[in-house]
Amino acid sequence: MTLIATDAKHYRLLPFRFMRMNTGHHRDILLTSDTGEYMHVNDAQLRALSYFDVQASTPFYKDLLARHFIYEPGRHDPFPEMAAQYRSRKDFLFQGPALHLFVVTLRCNHTCQYCQVSRAPLGGAGHDLSEADAQAAVDRLFESNAPALTVEFQGGEPLLAFERVRQIVEWVVDRNVVEQRDIQFVITTTLHHLTEEILDFAEQNRIQFSTSLDGPAPLHNANRPTPSRDSYERTVKGIQWVRERLGHDAVSALTTLTSRSLEQPEAIIDEYVNQGFSSISLRPLSPYGFATKSAHRLDYPIERYLAFYKRALAYLLHVNQQGVYLSESYTSLLLKNILTPFSSGYVDLRSPAGAGTAALVYNYDGYVYPSDEARMLLEMGEDGLRLGTVQQPLSELLASPVMNALLASGVAEALPGCSDCALVPYCGADPVEHYARQGDPIGHRVFSSFCEKNMGLLKHLFGLLCDGDDNVQRVLLAWLNRRSYNDVRFPGYRG
Ligand code: SF4
Protein backbone atom coordinates (compact mmCIF):
# COMPACT_ATOMS: atom_id res chain seq x y z
CA MET A 1 0.00 0.00 0.00
CA THR A 2 2.72 2.42 0.94
CA LEU A 3 4.45 1.67 -2.32
CA ILE A 4 1.52 2.82 -4.42
CA ALA A 5 0.85 5.96 -2.39
CA THR A 6 4.41 7.26 -2.59
CA ASP A 7 4.88 5.98 -6.15
CA ALA A 8 2.93 8.99 -7.34
CA LYS A 9 5.78 11.23 -6.15
CA HIS A 10 8.38 11.21 -8.88
CA TYR A 11 9.42 7.78 -10.18
CA ARG A 12 8.16 4.32 -10.94
CA LEU A 13 9.97 1.01 -10.74
CA LEU A 14 10.94 -1.00 -13.77
CA PRO A 15 11.22 -4.81 -13.40
CA PHE A 16 14.37 -5.85 -11.53
CA ARG A 17 15.73 -8.77 -9.54
CA PHE A 18 18.07 -8.71 -6.56
CA MET A 19 20.37 -11.10 -4.74
CA ARG A 20 22.50 -10.93 -1.61
CA MET A 21 26.07 -11.83 -2.60
CA ASN A 22 27.45 -12.62 0.90
CA THR A 23 30.79 -11.03 0.06
CA GLY A 24 31.05 -8.96 3.22
CA HIS A 25 31.18 -5.84 1.04
CA HIS A 26 29.09 -2.89 2.29
CA ARG A 27 27.21 -2.89 -1.04
CA ASP A 28 26.39 -6.58 -0.80
CA ILE A 29 23.19 -6.69 -2.86
CA LEU A 30 23.27 -7.13 -6.63
CA LEU A 31 20.43 -5.49 -8.55
CA THR A 32 19.93 -6.57 -12.15
CA SER A 33 17.47 -5.43 -14.79
CA ASP A 34 15.88 -7.60 -17.49
CA THR A 35 18.19 -6.01 -20.02
CA GLY A 36 21.32 -7.03 -18.08
CA GLU A 37 22.22 -3.70 -16.42
CA TYR A 38 23.48 -4.12 -12.87
CA MET A 39 24.33 -2.21 -9.69
CA HIS A 40 25.77 -3.12 -6.31
CA VAL A 41 23.72 -1.53 -3.53
CA ASN A 42 23.40 -1.71 0.26
CA ASP A 43 20.34 -2.59 2.33
CA ALA A 44 19.37 1.04 2.91
CA GLN A 45 19.56 1.84 -0.81
CA LEU A 46 17.39 -1.18 -1.75
CA ARG A 47 14.87 -0.18 0.90
CA ALA A 48 14.82 3.44 -0.29
CA LEU A 49 14.38 2.29 -3.91
CA SER A 50 11.49 -0.03 -3.04
CA TYR A 51 9.72 2.56 -0.91
CA PHE A 52 10.09 5.30 -3.55
CA ASP A 53 12.28 7.24 -1.20
CA VAL A 54 15.35 7.91 -3.35
CA GLN A 55 15.99 11.64 -3.68
CA ALA A 56 16.08 12.87 -7.27
CA SER A 57 19.15 15.04 -6.65
CA THR A 58 21.40 12.10 -5.65
CA PRO A 59 23.93 10.28 -7.88
CA PHE A 60 22.21 7.00 -6.86
CA TYR A 61 18.95 8.24 -8.37
CA LYS A 62 20.68 9.23 -11.61
CA ASP A 63 22.33 5.79 -11.80
CA LEU A 64 19.00 4.05 -11.28
CA LEU A 65 17.45 6.15 -14.01
CA ALA A 66 20.33 5.67 -16.48
CA ARG A 67 20.41 1.89 -15.95
CA HIS A 68 16.66 1.44 -16.31
CA PHE A 69 15.74 0.45 -12.77
CA ILE A 70 13.32 3.37 -12.52
CA TYR A 71 11.67 5.86 -14.86
CA GLU A 72 9.86 9.17 -14.54
CA PRO A 73 6.33 8.93 -15.98
CA GLY A 74 5.54 11.82 -18.30
CA ARG A 75 9.18 12.90 -18.45
CA HIS A 76 10.82 10.10 -20.38
CA ASP A 77 9.82 6.84 -22.00
CA PRO A 78 12.42 4.12 -21.31
CA PHE A 79 10.69 1.35 -23.24
CA PRO A 80 12.01 1.88 -26.81
CA GLU A 81 15.59 1.91 -25.48
CA MET A 82 14.98 -1.15 -23.29
CA ALA A 83 13.40 -3.01 -26.21
CA ALA A 84 16.50 -2.28 -28.32
CA GLN A 85 18.77 -3.50 -25.49
CA TYR A 86 16.72 -6.66 -25.08
CA ARG A 87 16.84 -7.30 -28.80
CA SER A 88 20.65 -6.92 -28.81
CA ARG A 89 21.00 -9.36 -25.92
CA LYS A 90 18.81 -11.95 -27.66
CA ASP A 91 20.13 -11.24 -31.13
CA PHE A 92 21.20 -14.88 -31.57
CA LEU A 93 17.51 -15.80 -31.98
CA PHE A 94 17.36 -14.24 -35.42
CA GLN A 95 19.52 -16.85 -37.11
CA GLY A 96 19.50 -20.61 -37.50
CA PRO A 97 22.10 -23.06 -36.19
CA ALA A 98 25.64 -21.82 -36.86
CA LEU A 99 27.67 -24.67 -35.33
CA HIS A 100 27.50 -27.98 -37.24
CA LEU A 101 29.34 -30.93 -35.76
CA PHE A 102 30.13 -33.86 -38.02
CA VAL A 103 30.93 -37.05 -36.10
CA VAL A 104 32.86 -38.74 -38.89
CA THR A 105 33.92 -41.76 -36.83
CA LEU A 106 33.76 -43.16 -33.32
CA ARG A 107 37.12 -44.90 -33.74
CA CYS A 108 39.98 -43.73 -31.48
CA ASN A 109 43.39 -44.87 -30.26
CA HIS A 110 42.86 -43.57 -26.72
CA THR A 111 41.13 -45.30 -23.83
CA CYS A 112 40.35 -42.29 -21.66
CA GLN A 113 38.23 -43.31 -18.69
CA TYR A 114 36.24 -40.09 -18.79
CA CYS A 115 35.76 -40.23 -22.58
CA GLN A 116 32.52 -38.49 -23.40
CA VAL A 117 31.74 -40.32 -26.61
CA SER A 118 32.40 -44.00 -25.89
CA ARG A 119 34.95 -44.52 -28.64
CA ALA A 120 35.18 -47.62 -30.82
CA PRO A 121 38.43 -49.57 -31.32
CA LEU A 122 40.80 -48.46 -34.10
CA GLY A 123 39.70 -51.14 -36.55
CA GLY A 124 36.05 -51.16 -35.44
CA ALA A 125 33.64 -51.59 -38.32
CA GLY A 126 30.35 -49.74 -38.67
CA HIS A 127 31.46 -46.67 -36.74
CA ASP A 128 32.05 -44.23 -39.63
CA LEU A 129 29.70 -41.66 -41.20
CA SER A 130 28.58 -42.94 -44.62
CA GLU A 131 29.09 -40.92 -47.79
CA ALA A 132 25.34 -40.58 -48.36
CA ASP A 133 24.74 -39.33 -44.82
CA ALA A 134 27.68 -36.93 -45.08
CA GLN A 135 26.22 -35.48 -48.28
CA ALA A 136 22.80 -35.07 -46.66
CA ALA A 137 24.42 -33.36 -43.65
CA VAL A 138 26.01 -30.79 -45.97
CA ASP A 139 22.51 -30.09 -47.36
CA ARG A 140 21.22 -29.56 -43.79
CA LEU A 141 24.14 -27.20 -43.06
CA PHE A 142 23.20 -24.88 -45.91
CA GLU A 143 19.51 -24.97 -45.00
CA SER A 144 20.42 -22.89 -41.93
CA ASN A 145 20.17 -19.16 -42.64
CA ALA A 146 23.19 -18.31 -40.46
CA PRO A 147 25.58 -16.07 -42.41
CA ALA A 148 28.60 -17.53 -40.54
CA LEU A 149 28.83 -21.31 -40.26
CA THR A 150 31.31 -23.40 -38.29
CA VAL A 151 31.90 -26.93 -39.59
CA GLU A 152 33.52 -28.93 -36.81
CA PHE A 153 34.78 -32.49 -37.21
CA GLN A 154 34.61 -34.67 -34.14
CA GLY A 155 35.02 -38.28 -33.15
CA GLY A 156 36.31 -40.57 -31.91
CA GLU A 157 39.38 -39.36 -33.68
CA PRO A 158 38.30 -37.65 -36.92
CA LEU A 159 41.73 -37.92 -38.54
CA LEU A 160 41.17 -41.70 -38.64
CA ALA A 161 38.40 -40.95 -41.17
CA PHE A 162 40.27 -38.19 -42.98
CA GLU A 163 38.96 -39.14 -46.44
CA ARG A 164 35.42 -38.36 -45.26
CA VAL A 165 36.63 -35.07 -43.74
CA ARG A 166 38.26 -34.19 -47.06
CA GLN A 167 35.07 -34.98 -49.00
CA ILE A 168 32.87 -32.89 -46.71
CA VAL A 169 35.25 -29.89 -46.85
CA GLU A 170 35.35 -30.11 -50.66
CA TRP A 171 31.55 -30.30 -50.95
CA VAL A 172 31.13 -27.35 -48.59
CA VAL A 173 33.74 -25.25 -50.40
CA ASP A 174 32.18 -26.01 -53.81
CA ARG A 175 28.69 -25.21 -52.67
CA ASN A 176 29.84 -22.03 -50.96
CA VAL A 177 30.84 -20.52 -54.30
CA VAL A 178 27.12 -19.86 -54.70
CA GLU A 179 26.08 -19.64 -51.04
CA GLN A 180 28.77 -17.09 -50.07
CA ARG A 181 28.69 -17.83 -46.32
CA ASP A 182 31.53 -17.15 -43.93
CA ILE A 183 32.72 -20.73 -43.27
CA GLN A 184 35.14 -21.83 -40.55
CA PHE A 185 36.44 -25.43 -40.48
CA VAL A 186 37.71 -26.95 -37.23
CA ILE A 187 39.04 -30.45 -36.60
CA THR A 188 38.91 -31.59 -32.97
CA THR A 189 41.74 -34.08 -32.72
CA THR A 190 44.51 -35.54 -30.57
CA LEU A 191 46.90 -34.63 -33.45
CA HIS A 192 48.40 -38.13 -33.21
CA HIS A 193 47.48 -39.05 -36.77
CA LEU A 194 48.66 -35.91 -38.56
CA THR A 195 50.42 -36.31 -41.90
CA GLU A 196 51.97 -33.92 -44.41
CA GLU A 197 49.00 -34.60 -46.67
CA ILE A 198 46.52 -33.58 -43.96
CA LEU A 199 48.47 -30.41 -43.23
CA ASP A 200 48.62 -29.53 -46.95
CA PHE A 201 44.86 -29.90 -47.18
CA ALA A 202 44.35 -27.88 -43.97
CA GLU A 203 46.56 -25.12 -45.35
CA GLN A 204 44.61 -24.93 -48.62
CA ASN A 205 41.28 -24.74 -46.81
CA ARG A 206 42.31 -22.67 -43.76
CA ILE A 207 41.27 -25.46 -41.38
CA GLN A 208 41.84 -24.84 -37.65
CA PHE A 209 42.79 -27.57 -35.19
CA SER A 210 41.45 -27.94 -31.67
CA THR A 211 43.23 -30.43 -29.46
CA SER A 212 43.15 -31.71 -25.89
CA LEU A 213 45.93 -30.83 -23.49
CA ASP A 214 45.18 -31.68 -19.89
CA GLY A 215 48.38 -30.31 -18.35
CA PRO A 216 52.00 -31.43 -17.93
CA ALA A 217 53.07 -34.88 -19.20
CA PRO A 218 52.36 -36.96 -16.04
CA LEU A 219 48.84 -35.54 -15.70
CA HIS A 220 48.00 -35.66 -19.41
CA ASN A 221 49.28 -39.21 -19.83
CA ALA A 222 47.43 -40.39 -16.72
CA ASN A 223 44.20 -38.81 -17.97
CA ARG A 224 44.61 -40.00 -21.56
CA PRO A 225 46.09 -43.48 -21.73
CA THR A 226 47.28 -44.94 -25.03
CA PRO A 227 48.95 -48.32 -25.56
CA SER A 228 52.30 -46.52 -26.07
CA ARG A 229 51.79 -44.20 -23.06
CA ASP A 230 53.03 -41.17 -24.95
CA SER A 231 49.85 -39.21 -25.57
CA TYR A 232 51.37 -35.97 -24.23
CA GLU A 233 54.53 -36.25 -26.32
CA ARG A 234 52.58 -36.96 -29.52
CA THR A 235 50.09 -34.14 -28.92
CA VAL A 236 52.84 -31.58 -28.21
CA LYS A 237 54.70 -32.72 -31.32
CA GLY A 238 51.46 -32.28 -33.29
CA ILE A 239 50.97 -28.77 -31.89
CA GLN A 240 54.48 -27.78 -33.03
CA TRP A 241 53.97 -29.31 -36.44
CA VAL A 242 50.67 -27.48 -37.03
CA ARG A 243 52.25 -24.20 -35.94
CA GLU A 244 55.28 -24.65 -38.20
CA ARG A 245 53.06 -25.31 -41.21
CA LEU A 246 49.94 -23.19 -40.57
CA GLY A 247 50.96 -20.51 -38.09
CA HIS A 248 50.95 -20.16 -34.32
CA ASP A 249 47.20 -19.58 -33.93
CA ALA A 250 46.08 -22.46 -36.15
CA VAL A 251 45.76 -24.72 -33.10
CA SER A 252 43.95 -24.21 -29.80
CA ALA A 253 43.61 -26.58 -26.85
CA LEU A 254 41.01 -27.66 -24.30
CA THR A 255 41.48 -29.28 -20.91
CA THR A 256 39.38 -31.91 -19.27
CA LEU A 257 39.58 -31.66 -15.51
CA THR A 258 39.67 -34.95 -13.65
CA SER A 259 39.75 -35.28 -9.91
CA ARG A 260 43.56 -35.38 -9.99
CA SER A 261 43.67 -32.22 -12.14
CA LEU A 262 41.92 -30.27 -9.40
CA GLU A 263 44.98 -30.55 -7.18
CA GLN A 264 47.30 -28.78 -9.61
CA PRO A 265 45.83 -25.65 -11.22
CA GLU A 266 49.19 -23.85 -11.32
CA ALA A 267 50.91 -26.75 -13.12
CA ILE A 268 48.14 -26.87 -15.76
CA ILE A 269 48.34 -23.11 -16.34
CA ASP A 270 52.15 -23.19 -16.49
CA GLU A 271 51.91 -25.87 -19.17
CA TYR A 272 49.65 -23.64 -21.27
CA VAL A 273 52.04 -20.71 -20.81
CA ASN A 274 55.00 -22.91 -21.82
CA GLN A 275 53.16 -24.12 -24.91
CA GLY A 276 52.37 -20.51 -25.91
CA PHE A 277 48.57 -20.71 -25.84
CA SER A 278 46.55 -17.53 -25.39
CA SER A 279 43.45 -19.23 -24.02
CA ILE A 280 42.74 -22.04 -21.57
CA SER A 281 39.39 -23.67 -20.88
CA LEU A 282 38.93 -24.88 -17.31
CA ARG A 283 35.71 -26.84 -17.72
CA PRO A 284 34.45 -29.42 -15.25
CA LEU A 285 33.85 -33.03 -16.24
CA SER A 286 30.56 -33.73 -18.02
CA PRO A 287 28.10 -36.29 -16.72
CA TYR A 288 27.93 -38.15 -20.03
CA GLY A 289 29.23 -41.24 -21.80
CA PHE A 290 31.90 -43.25 -20.02
CA ALA A 291 32.26 -40.44 -17.52
CA THR A 292 29.09 -41.55 -15.76
CA LYS A 293 30.04 -45.23 -15.76
CA SER A 294 33.28 -44.29 -14.00
CA ALA A 295 31.68 -41.54 -11.98
CA HIS A 296 32.50 -43.07 -8.61
CA ARG A 297 36.22 -42.68 -9.41
CA LEU A 298 36.33 -39.64 -11.65
CA ASP A 299 33.50 -37.30 -10.74
CA TYR A 300 33.74 -34.64 -8.05
CA PRO A 301 31.36 -32.25 -6.34
CA ILE A 302 31.00 -28.86 -8.00
CA GLU A 303 32.16 -27.14 -4.82
CA ARG A 304 35.56 -28.79 -5.33
CA TYR A 305 35.60 -27.52 -8.89
CA LEU A 306 34.71 -24.00 -7.69
CA ALA A 307 37.58 -24.02 -5.18
CA PHE A 308 39.89 -25.13 -8.01
CA TYR A 309 38.52 -22.42 -10.33
CA LYS A 310 39.08 -19.63 -7.79
CA ARG A 311 42.65 -20.76 -7.17
CA ALA A 312 43.28 -21.13 -10.91
CA LEU A 313 41.77 -17.72 -11.70
CA ALA A 314 43.89 -16.02 -9.02
CA TYR A 315 46.99 -17.58 -10.57
CA LEU A 316 45.89 -16.65 -14.10
CA LEU A 317 45.33 -13.03 -13.01
CA HIS A 318 48.83 -13.02 -11.53
CA VAL A 319 50.38 -14.53 -14.69
CA ASN A 320 48.63 -11.98 -16.91
CA GLN A 321 49.90 -9.11 -14.77
CA GLN A 322 53.43 -10.34 -15.56
CA GLY A 323 52.73 -9.59 -19.24
CA VAL A 324 51.66 -13.07 -20.44
CA TYR A 325 48.30 -13.11 -22.20
CA LEU A 326 46.36 -16.23 -21.20
CA SER A 327 42.60 -15.89 -20.79
CA GLU A 328 40.17 -18.43 -19.36
CA SER A 329 37.56 -18.95 -22.05
CA TYR A 330 34.42 -19.50 -19.93
CA THR A 331 35.31 -16.44 -17.81
CA SER A 332 35.63 -14.35 -20.99
CA LEU A 333 32.17 -15.51 -22.12
CA LEU A 334 30.63 -14.62 -18.74
CA LEU A 335 32.37 -11.22 -18.80
CA LYS A 336 30.87 -10.53 -22.20
CA ASN A 337 27.42 -11.36 -20.83
CA ILE A 338 27.95 -9.12 -17.78
CA LEU A 339 29.82 -6.13 -19.19
CA THR A 340 28.47 -5.68 -22.70
CA PRO A 341 24.95 -5.26 -24.10
CA PHE A 342 25.43 -8.44 -26.13
CA SER A 343 25.24 -12.15 -25.38
CA SER A 344 28.33 -14.27 -25.86
CA GLY A 345 26.08 -16.57 -27.91
CA TYR A 346 27.78 -19.56 -26.27
CA VAL A 347 25.46 -22.56 -26.58
CA ASP A 348 25.33 -23.45 -22.85
CA LEU A 349 24.76 -19.83 -21.81
CA ARG A 350 21.78 -19.12 -24.02
CA SER A 351 18.18 -18.59 -23.08
CA PRO A 352 16.22 -19.84 -25.00
CA ALA A 353 18.53 -22.83 -24.92
CA GLY A 354 21.13 -23.23 -27.66
CA ALA A 355 20.69 -26.99 -28.17
CA GLY A 356 19.32 -27.38 -31.71
CA THR A 357 18.79 -23.63 -32.18
CA ALA A 358 22.53 -22.85 -32.20
CA ALA A 359 24.16 -26.21 -32.88
CA LEU A 360 23.41 -29.50 -34.61
CA VAL A 361 25.29 -32.78 -34.44
CA TYR A 362 25.33 -35.22 -37.38
CA ASN A 363 26.21 -38.52 -35.80
CA TYR A 364 28.18 -41.31 -37.52
CA ASP A 365 24.99 -43.42 -37.67
CA GLY A 366 23.02 -40.80 -39.63
CA TYR A 367 20.95 -39.48 -36.73
CA VAL A 368 20.83 -35.79 -35.81
CA TYR A 369 21.15 -34.49 -32.24
CA PRO A 370 20.62 -31.03 -30.78
CA SER A 371 24.01 -30.98 -29.04
CA ASP A 372 27.11 -33.00 -28.44
CA GLU A 373 25.89 -33.81 -24.94
CA ALA A 374 22.63 -35.20 -26.36
CA ARG A 375 24.49 -37.64 -28.60
CA MET A 376 26.71 -38.66 -25.68
CA LEU A 377 23.54 -39.69 -23.87
CA LEU A 378 22.95 -42.07 -26.76
CA GLU A 379 26.15 -43.87 -25.86
CA MET A 380 24.71 -44.32 -22.38
CA GLY A 381 21.78 -46.19 -23.94
CA GLU A 382 19.50 -43.13 -24.05
CA ASP A 383 18.19 -42.16 -27.50
CA GLY A 384 15.31 -39.95 -26.37
CA LEU A 385 16.95 -36.71 -27.49
CA ARG A 386 17.24 -37.52 -31.20
CA LEU A 387 15.78 -34.90 -33.58
CA GLY A 388 15.52 -37.31 -36.51
CA THR A 389 17.73 -38.52 -39.34
CA VAL A 390 20.09 -36.51 -41.49
CA GLN A 391 17.88 -37.27 -44.51
CA GLN A 392 15.05 -35.11 -43.11
CA PRO A 393 14.96 -31.39 -43.98
CA LEU A 394 16.20 -28.95 -41.34
CA SER A 395 12.72 -27.43 -40.93
CA GLU A 396 11.40 -30.87 -39.97
CA LEU A 397 14.26 -31.56 -37.54
CA LEU A 398 13.74 -28.20 -35.83
CA ALA A 399 10.00 -28.83 -35.50
CA SER A 400 10.49 -32.30 -33.98
CA PRO A 401 8.84 -33.22 -30.65
CA VAL A 402 12.27 -33.34 -28.98
CA MET A 403 13.03 -29.80 -30.12
CA ASN A 404 9.65 -28.60 -28.84
CA ALA A 405 10.29 -30.26 -25.48
CA LEU A 406 13.75 -28.67 -25.23
CA LEU A 407 12.40 -25.22 -26.05
CA ALA A 408 9.52 -25.60 -23.61
CA SER A 409 12.07 -26.22 -20.85
CA GLY A 410 14.79 -23.98 -22.24
CA VAL A 411 13.74 -20.42 -21.37
CA ALA A 412 15.63 -19.61 -18.17
CA GLU A 413 13.52 -16.52 -17.42
CA ALA A 414 10.50 -18.84 -17.10
CA LEU A 415 12.10 -21.71 -15.16
CA PRO A 416 11.45 -22.31 -11.46
CA GLY A 417 14.44 -20.99 -9.55
CA CYS A 418 15.85 -19.01 -12.46
CA SER A 419 12.83 -16.75 -12.99
CA ASP A 420 13.58 -14.77 -9.83
CA CYS A 421 17.38 -15.17 -9.84
CA ALA A 422 19.32 -11.90 -10.27
CA LEU A 423 21.90 -13.74 -12.39
CA VAL A 424 19.45 -14.89 -15.06
CA PRO A 425 20.40 -12.18 -17.63
CA TYR A 426 23.95 -13.64 -17.75
CA CYS A 427 23.17 -17.35 -17.31
CA GLY A 428 21.48 -19.91 -19.54
CA ALA A 429 19.10 -22.83 -19.57
CA ASP A 430 20.61 -26.21 -20.28
CA PRO A 431 17.74 -28.70 -20.62
CA VAL A 432 20.01 -31.45 -21.97
CA GLU A 433 22.26 -31.37 -18.91
CA HIS A 434 19.26 -31.34 -16.57
CA TYR A 435 17.77 -34.26 -18.48
CA ALA A 436 21.08 -36.14 -18.16
CA ARG A 437 21.60 -35.42 -14.49
CA GLN A 438 18.06 -35.20 -13.14
CA GLY A 439 15.98 -37.10 -15.72
CA ASP A 440 13.90 -33.97 -16.38
CA PRO A 441 14.78 -31.19 -18.85
CA ILE A 442 13.32 -28.51 -16.55
CA GLY A 443 15.19 -29.82 -13.53
CA HIS A 444 15.42 -28.52 -10.01
CA ARG A 445 17.91 -25.68 -9.54
CA VAL A 446 18.53 -26.39 -5.86
CA PHE A 447 20.14 -29.73 -6.81
CA SER A 448 21.52 -28.61 -10.17
CA SER A 449 25.29 -28.67 -10.68
CA PHE A 450 24.78 -26.42 -13.74
CA CYS A 451 23.23 -23.83 -11.42
CA GLU A 452 25.80 -24.35 -8.67
CA LYS A 453 28.62 -23.88 -11.17
CA ASN A 454 27.22 -20.79 -12.89
CA MET A 455 26.07 -19.17 -9.67
CA GLY A 456 29.48 -19.79 -8.07
CA LEU A 457 31.40 -18.41 -11.05
CA LEU A 458 29.12 -15.40 -11.62
CA LYS A 459 29.16 -14.43 -7.94
CA HIS A 460 32.94 -14.70 -7.87
CA LEU A 461 33.27 -12.53 -10.98
CA PHE A 462 30.82 -9.92 -9.67
CA GLY A 463 32.91 -9.88 -6.47
CA LEU A 464 36.08 -9.19 -8.49
CA LEU A 465 34.34 -6.54 -10.61
CA CYS A 466 33.12 -4.80 -7.47
CA ASP A 467 36.10 -5.29 -5.16
CA GLY A 468 39.08 -6.41 -7.25
CA ASP A 469 42.02 -4.02 -7.34
CA ASP A 470 42.81 -2.00 -10.46
CA ASN A 471 45.21 -4.60 -11.82
CA VAL A 472 42.61 -7.38 -11.58
CA GLN A 473 40.07 -5.16 -13.35
CA ARG A 474 42.60 -4.41 -16.08
CA VAL A 475 43.20 -8.13 -16.75
CA LEU A 476 39.46 -8.84 -16.92
CA LEU A 477 38.98 -5.96 -19.36
CA ALA A 478 41.94 -7.18 -21.41
CA TRP A 479 40.24 -10.60 -21.73
CA LEU A 480 36.93 -8.99 -22.63
CA ASN A 481 38.51 -6.90 -25.38
CA ARG A 482 41.21 -9.42 -26.40
CA ARG A 483 43.86 -6.79 -25.78
CA SER A 484 47.13 -7.09 -23.93
CA TYR A 485 47.20 -6.13 -20.25
CA ASN A 486 49.57 -3.24 -20.96
CA ASP A 487 47.13 -1.81 -23.54
CA VAL A 488 44.40 -1.53 -20.89
CA ARG A 489 45.66 1.45 -18.92
CA PHE A 490 42.61 2.11 -16.75
CA PRO A 491 40.46 -0.30 -14.76
CA GLY A 492 37.20 0.86 -16.40
CA TYR A 493 33.64 0.27 -15.35
CA ARG A 494 32.49 -0.65 -11.85
CA GLY A 495 28.82 -1.15 -11.07
S1 SF4 B 1 20.79 -21.66 -13.35
FE1 SF4 B 1 21.02 -20.91 -11.25
S2 SF4 B 1 22.44 -19.15 -11.44
FE2 SF4 B 1 21.62 -19.56 -13.48
S3 SF4 B 1 19.82 -18.22 -13.60
FE3 SF4 B 1 19.10 -20.23 -12.91
S4 SF4 B 1 19.03 -20.04 -10.67
FE4 SF4 B 1 20.34 -18.36 -11.44
UniProtKB/TrEMBL annotation:
Positions of the Radical SAM core domain: 94-322
- Record has Cytoplasm as a keyword: no
Which InterPro entries is this protein grouped with?
Answer: Aldolase_TIM (IPR013785), rSAM (IPR007197), rSAM_paired_HxsB (IPR024023), rSAM_sf (IPR058240), Sulphatase_maturase_rSAM (IPR023867)
**Organism, scientific name:** Pseudomonas hamedanensis
Q: Which Gene3D superfamilies match?
A: Aldolase class I
Q: Check the record and name the Pfam families matching this protein.
A: Radical_SAM
Region: Disordered; residue ranges are 212-231
Matching entries from PROSITE patterns are given as: RADICAL_SAM
Query: Which cofactors must be present for this protein to function?
Result: [4Fe-4S] cluster
State the name under which the record lists this protein. His-Xaa-Ser system radical SAM maturase HxsB
Q: Which UniProt keywords apply?
A: Iron, Iron-sulfur, Metal-binding, S-adenosyl-L-methionine
| UniProt cross-references to NCBIfam families, sorted A to Z | rSAM_paired_1
Task: List GO molecular-function terms, semicolon-separated.
Answer: iron-sulfur cluster binding; metal ion binding; oxidoreductase activity
> Looking at the record's lineage, which domain of life comes first?
Bacteria
Say if the entry is tagged with keyword Transport. no
